[in-house]
Fold this protein.
Amino acid sequence: MQDRLTRHALAAAIALAIAVLALPAQENGTPSWHDQGTDRHQDPQALEVLKAGLEAMGGADAILGRKTIFIKRKTVNHQYPEPLEGVIAIWFKRPDKFRKEVIYPTRQFVEAFDGQVAWFDTGDGPRKHGEIRTAAMQDGIDELDLPANYLDAELSYFNISQEIPGKLAHVVKIRKNGYTRELMFDVDTRLLEVTGEYENPWGATDKMMRFSRYRPVDGILIPHRVEYWRANSMTLETEIEEIRFNEPIDDAMFAVPEAAKGPSGSAPAK
């Protein structure tokens, strides 16, 4: 899988730079690359594999029924000359309120969405996100329900793969909101093991995520270790330290600071 991902590496940087400038603005609050009222083909075999994966985790109703989510992850960032350890904390309140805090020894930033406005603070004051970054952030929020967030996506069954060492996996291709991905479900456990991203609204890409160490949390199997890869290199590895569902979260956690209610700024570096 990693070899196939690398074929997009050069194109990704060029496509991203061009496509972001070329993307039209949102219309009626919906980003132009989102599926809007289109019929999505769902191959029955692909849908069966996806539903089996959800059942193995505890069921789509349990995943989508979580009212709030709090996750604190220890993280090691490999995009520096030396691996840099830090912490990522996420708060989510359904349907769409979200806050993320990323803390490293030398830097930190906050990013949040109050249901209407997305904002961020990299340490020099809060600013609002623009339309494109806000829409992309909303797509990212949906990933908290992975893989239940693909129940309404275009689905096709690809094959049984041997690309995960020591395992066989069903490969399901999905397309939703301008993103094209492959999902790999372990044939034996039915759990999601790998997602690979090949295209997004900004062009070609070569991202991959690996999930492992599934453990039960309130009746749902959650992967406690997640690795992020790009072009055969691990960029980030995370391990859950704390995770809680359905605890009260004050809306003030997501509220836009007064200082950010002016013009939009640039997105924080990742």
